[in-house]
Automatic annotation (TrEMBL):
Organism: Halpernia humi
InterPro entries for the chain: RlmKL-like_Mtase, RlmKL-like_Mtase_CS, RlmL_1st, SAM-dependent_MTases_sf, THUMP_dom
Gene Ontology molecular function: RNA binding; rRNA (guanine-N2-)-methyltransferase activity; rRNA (guanine-N7-)-methyltransferase activity
Name of the protein in question: Putative N6-adenine-specific DNA methylase
Keyword field: Methyltransferase, RNA-binding, Transferase
Length: 389
């Protein structure tokens, strides 16, 4: 592996590609290319460590090590058997393979994964008369198999566990939002830590914590204990330590307020647990408050939230979304509010025309991330005329 000129692929969620590309450029990535749910770039080993530690909208970071075309399973096996695996995997290490396959020719993903395992194990047995172990639960080396029709790409997973696992989520709510999606939403909403932030339906606190981490410039993985690249033969512990130290020096004080409301005591307790785990109790305030009975307290204010929608949490109040709109209009003048929902019919009941609409996915649910601008006096409130969300 050429440690000075790595080709890198960074996976993300649909709709966050441009946000991820901006993060990568800011962190020093070269030849940045936006793809579907991914960004490709180039950089050295230090850059690879830096993006794993700091990047907020990355799900996993892969380094391709082998690409070839194949039309049958035997050629696939032969190409893998002929590869110098000891450059990437020691015989005393465990490994696992995950896969993404888009191919009519190789439609059975588990069969291809097994074929690849066989090739790697047979290589070591033939050359060293011993073999590495396969460990699907906690492998030291994670390898990714990608097949697009007949094009095969083998990559090392530099992250290990998926990067949405920040390490602060101790208690989970009924339908928590993914940490990477939460950070992406905040960046789409242009939250930069200037001013104040409100999540009026905060659940277990993910948006609040990610907002605080952005405001203070905390590295996304400041709580993570281990990355996949730390098990690679070329791992440079001193370099990674220097990168972490330099990154931590950039942490800054936040002078605004980050506040979360919820009406559920269980959720408020969960949020409290997670905020404490993130060591942000002095930065984030959560309290029992019905948003529909609330009034604007913070100036200036950005609001971002993930309200219930029936596919996630059952809504028994038919007027729920119209109450959101009423509360916006009556109690939150001169406020920018963003809301994500998959219930596109219910969203029309808000009664305000969104000034921006962004397609995102919350898990498998297709959603819209909607921006509402509330003005006082000077601008007319636009009614929503059953337009397509």
């Amino acid at each position: 592996m050429d440690s000075d000129n790595l080709k890198i692929q960074i996976k993300t969620f649909f709709g966050l590609e441009e946000i991820l590309a901006a993060e990568i450029k800011k962190l020093g990535g070269q030849n940045v290319e936006v793809k579907n749910r991914a960004v490709n770039c180039e950089g050295d080993l230090g850059f690879l460590y830096k993006i794993n530690y700091s990047c907020r909208t990355a799900l996993k970071i892969l380094v391709p090590i082998l690409t070839f075309k194949t039309w049958d399973e035997n050629r696939f096996y032969d190409k893998l058997f002929d590869f110098p695996w000891e450059d990437y995997l020691r015989v005393d290490q465990s490994f696992a393979i995950d896969s993404t396959i888009y191919s009519d020719r190789f439609s059975h993903s588990q069969f291809m994964v097994q074929k690849m395992k066989d090739a790697i194990v047979d290589y070591f047995k033939f050359k060293y008369n011993t073999r590495p172990n396969v460990d699907s639960k906690n492998p030291e080396i994670k390898i990714h198999l990608h097949i697009d029709r007949e094009l095969v790409t083998i990559s090392l997973d530099s992250s290990g566990d998926a990067l949405f696992k920040r390490g602060y989520r101790k208690t989970q709510g009924e339908a928590p939002i993914n940490e990477v999606l939460a950070s992406g939403m905040l960046q789409l909403a242009s939250w930069d830590g200037k001013g104040n932030f409100l999540d009026p339906m905060c659940g277990s606190g993910t948006l609040l914590i990610e907002a605080a981490m952005i405001a203070m410039d905390l590295p996304a993985q400041i709580f993570r204990k281990e990355f996949g690249f730390q098990n690679w033969p070329n791992y440079d512990a001193e370099l990674f330590s220097t990168i972490k130290e330099n990154r931590i020096k950039r942490i800054k004080e936040f002078t605004g307020k980050i506040v979360g409301y919820d009406i559920d005591n269980v959720m408020l307790d969960a949020a409290g647990d997670n905020i404490a785990a993130a060591e942000l109790e002095e930065v984030i305030e959560v309290r029992k408050q019905n948003f529909f009975d609330s009034k604007k307290e913070l100036f200036p204010l950005l609001m971002v939230f993930n309200p219930p929608y029936d596919e996630r949490i059952e809504i028994t109040d038919e007027d729920f979304y119209s109450k959101i709109g009423d509360t916006f209009k009556k109690n939150y003048p001169n406020t920018l509010a963003w809301m994500i929902s998959s219930d596109l019919e219910a969203v029309k009941k808000v009664g305000l025309r969104p000034s921006r609409k962004i397609k995102l996915f919350n898990g498998k649910l297709e959603c819209r991330f909607l921006q509402y601008e509330m003005y006082e006096g000077t601008k007319k409130i636009h009614k929503l005329n059953n337009e397509t969300i």
